[in-house]
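User: For this week's homework, look closely at the record that follows, marking any run of repeated tokens, and judge whether sequence predicts the tokens.
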Amino acid sequence: MKLKKIHHVAVICSDYQKSKDFYVRILGLDPISEVYREERDSYKLDLEVGGQYQIELFSFPNPPERPNRPEALGLRHLAFEVENIEDEVAELVKHDIKVEPIRIDPITNKKYTFFADPDGLPLELYEA
């Protein structure tokens, strides 16, 4: 295999409009395309991250709950690289988003912190 990069990450949300607002207005991701799939009663919104990667935001009627344990099996979290973590944390706090205290990675000595999307999906800011 010759994998080149991650192409996209797919996220299923419980409230499409609320999650769309969070990812577009608050996180500042740029919409690429938005499609309503009538046969599935589902929206799919492709979002650009830093001019390169995509997040696919999906809505489905009555999706099952995500296990809410820090070490649940499956995707642990989605991390975003930032230049200045303090500035980005301040921006999240302005929108009443709870952010954990900034920590230092003991291996890389880089700053990072966690917050959550409207459905509790763990998101990380990582200062490069």
